[in-house]
Amino acid sequence: MTPLKSSASSNHLRCGKSALKLLLCIAPLSILHFLSIGNCVLALQTTSSISHARVQHRIKYPQPCSSSLAAAGGFDSSHRATSSWRRTNQRTRLDSSRSTTTSTSFDVQVGNPQKRTDRNGQKKETTSVSPSRQHRQLSKSNTRKALKYIQSIAVASFYGASEAIRQSWWLFPMTLALIPLYCFFLGTRATVPSWYFVVPLNHLTHSPYAAAVVGGFLLSNIFYFISGLFMLDLIPLGRAAGRRVRKFSRHLARDPLLGASVITAGLVSTIYHSVQTLGSYAMAQELCLIDTGVALSSSALFLKNFGLPSWKTSIIGGAGILAWMNPLDGSYAGFHSMWHFFSAMASVSWGFDGFKREVLL
């Protein structure tokens, strides 16, 4: 029993080995067979797609000579023939359009009517324009453009000048300062009218109290400098001045031209009165014109910024004008010093009027 079992098991092993060898031989063949079938399917699909594309191409672009294309054979030859046929048709259309354009264009000659086609394909006759007429039309258009430019420049200049006058009219009194310069170029000396109050003060230098009188008279211009520095907020104000006064000074300092105009008036007044007292009377008259122009321009600036003064400011200014007119003889220095004080005070009061209108109300 044992030898038989061993022989049976050996037979089974031999059969298994032979079956395994057979499978190993058959498997590559089956794989190759499967791949060949797939390649055939792909080839059939590619062939069908190529034939479908060829049919679509022939439908879209019909061939003029099918027999010659069939004789030539192949997709490449038919494609080349179709492309050449399309190029021929394009050249024909271009030549026809060029000839149409050439025939419809008109020659620039006098009185030579030409035919042109509109968008609807209808022909219409047009008369050509001569070069001289074209030149006249061009010159007319250029003239109109030049007139428009000149008109725009004139309008812009007018509006610019009106705006400058509206903003800077307060400087017009400064033209008085140009009179001495104009007379200098003419070789003459500028003089003031006889009714104007320019008093020679050379006699004060011979007085025993000349130093005190002349010094006090010139020192009265300090009120202009104090007022101008206050308007520029350059004077330190303590708590004793009050919150309202400090706020007023800071408000005026927002327009530094106000304080600068008052300081300039004080500086010019000091130079003018120094020459009036210690220099020549002719030069004093020329400086008087400059001093008057600066004072009037400063007053016009306050009028532009703050409007008409209040009755309190008018009273202060009126008192200063009475002192400036010098109603008594021999007291010019004293009364004119009062004019310096009242005019400087009036400038501060005028600024306070504008402050009340803008801030407090």
UniProtKB/TrEMBL annotation:
Residues 133-143 have a biased composition (Basic residues). Residues 76-143 are annotated as: Disordered. Keywords: Membrane, Transmembrane, Transmembrane helix. The chain crosses the membrane at residues 20-44, 169-188, 208-235, 256-275. The keyword NAD does not apply. The keyword Transmembrane applies. Residues 115-126 have a biased composition (Basic and acidic residues). This is Uncharacterized protein. It comes from Helicotheca tamesis.
